[in-house]
């Protein structure tokens, strides 16, 4: 059977990734509702689009897990934090996206190291999406007057 050849650590990465993607769905959905309540319609729409993208990531993980013969097993949904401003919300997103980037980066390297190219490419595809998200959040913060972090201060790249 196919799943017999998948390294247990790869399955662990998939489970952790699913927990983080569902957490991202909850976080962006909450932020869309907050932004709307603050009268920031454009920001609310943008957070809603992010919510959909994170749902699509979760769906990719669910399909991959089913394809490997395992049940989707997200176990830890972290609470969406409270914030008083749009900048605060985006800072929370920076933290979460950096964590997701770090996980996909580690998972990609691990799979490549053990010669599991199929799962390595799967994780790398998600990694590229999340690097893009992280860069978009930086650009958004910059547009709000928050200076871009120096490379040595960044949690990723
Ligand atoms: Fe995601
Ligand atoms: Fe993301």
TrEMBL record:
Annotated ranges, domain Ferritin-like diiron = 4-148
Which keywords does the record carry? Heme, Iron, Iron storage, Metal-binding
**Presence of the UniProt keyword Metal-binding in the record:** yes
Instruction: State the EC number(s).
Output: 1.16.3.1
MF (Gene Ontology): ferric iron binding; ferroxidase activity; heme binding
Residues at which Fe cation 1 binds: 21, 54, 57, 130
Detail which positions bind Fe cation 3. 53
Q: What broad class of enzyme is this? A: oxidoreductase
Which cofactors does the annotated protein need, by name? heme b
GO biological process entries: intracellular iron ion homeostasis; iron ion transport
The cellular component terms of Gene Ontology attached to this UniProt record, alphabetical and capped at eight, are: cytosol
Q: Which residues bind heme b?
A: 55
- Chain positions recorded as Fe cation 2 binding sites: 54, 97, 130, 133
Catalyzed chemical reaction(s): Fe(2+)(in) = Fe(2+)(out); 4 Fe(2+) + O2 + 4 H(+) = 4 Fe(3+) + 2 H2O
What is the stated purpose of this protein? Iron-storage protein, whose ferroxidase center binds Fe(2+), oxidizes it using dioxygen to Fe(3+), and participates in the subsequent Fe(3+) oxide mineral core formation within the central cavity of the BFR protein shell.
Q: Which PANTHER family match?
A: BACTERIOFERRITIN (PTHR30295)
The UniProt similarity line reads: Belongs to the bacterioferritin family.
Q: Could you tell me what this protein is called?
A: Bacterioferritin
Instruction: Provide the species name.
Output: Halochromatium glycolicum
């Amino acid at each position: 059977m196919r799943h017999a050849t998948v390294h247990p650590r790869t399955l662990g990465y998939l489970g952790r990734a699913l927990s983080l993607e569902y957490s991202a769905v909850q976080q962006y959905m909450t932020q869309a509702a907050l932004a709307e309540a603050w009268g920031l319609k454009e920001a609310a729409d943008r957070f809603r689009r992010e919510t959909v993208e994170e749902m699509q990531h979760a769906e990719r993980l669910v399909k991959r897990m089913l394809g490997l013969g395992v049940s989707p097993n997200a176990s830890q949904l972290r609470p969406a934090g409270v914030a008083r401003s749009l900048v605060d919300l985006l800072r929370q997103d920076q933290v979460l996206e950096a964590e997701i980037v770090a996980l996909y980066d580690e998972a990609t390297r691990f799979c490549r190291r053990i010669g599991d190219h199929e799962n390595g490419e799967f994780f790398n595809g998600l990694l590229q999406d999340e690097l893009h998200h992280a860069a978009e959040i930086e650009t958004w913060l910059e547009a709000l007057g928050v200076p871009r972090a120096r490379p040595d201060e960044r949690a990723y790249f």
